[in-house]
Input
Amino acid sequence: MPPVSPTVARWELGIRLRRRRAQLGIDVQTITARLGFSRNYWSAIENDRKLLSEEKLRTLLELYEFDEDEQQELLALRESAKERGWWSRYSALFSEELLRVYGLEHGAESIRTYESLLVPGLLQTSDYARALISSDLANIRQVEVDQRVEVRMRRQQRLSGDDPLQLTAVISEAALLQQIGGTEVLSRQLEYLADMIEKYPETIELRVIPFTATAGGVLGASTFHVIEFASAELPSLAWQETVTSQGVIESETQVRDLAMTHAQALTQGLDRQESLELIRRYARG
Output
């Protein structure tokens, strides 16, 4: 199983409580009267922005008629949700939504990602990441650049360990040529990328869409990630970035469309060995 993530635990708790209320047809007024909450506070609980006390949760679990096993599961989720993930230490650097993505990523089972001009963040070297961050945020202090690079490297720990993240990445051939950080930085980045593909053949899949590809919806797409979880209680989510906006996507239809776009992109890309050989060739210059 993936590591426990407080973000994922809180999210699952909210989903299961919201789903159960809908199944039983209990209106919000009944709950707020029973627990002594306002409607706004209850909405924050169901949408994983607030966490019930153990006493209030036990009262709610009885009202919702959960059996003993489910009650213990939900109480355990609450205990996990109380913890602080490593990403919470960086709240001064990142938006609440981006920190949530890091928490979701930490507890995910698999991620499917697409990048057009860049190597995906989970596969970047520190020098490559530093060059990107320094150019994107030219006016920030060096210590903040260091912290942001540190976060990017910390996220990559999910690619190794006892239950590593399953990562399926699609990139354009252009990402292998874009001179992020200069020739030497890019060359080392490509060598590292090829090494990771060879080191983790069971969990890291990377396909390169060659310049010879003639069509495909993904070619005009922005950066996106489809995030999936081991728990059958949790739906897939997506994260999408453009120049002017970024955000979590929870719409089932939109997530499905992105997943289908990614699946189509895989068919347009070179196979695993061809992608690896192309990366090695560009790394050698």
Q: What stands out?
A: The mean pLDDT is 93. The chain has eleven helices and six strands. The chain has two domains: 6-81, 87-284.
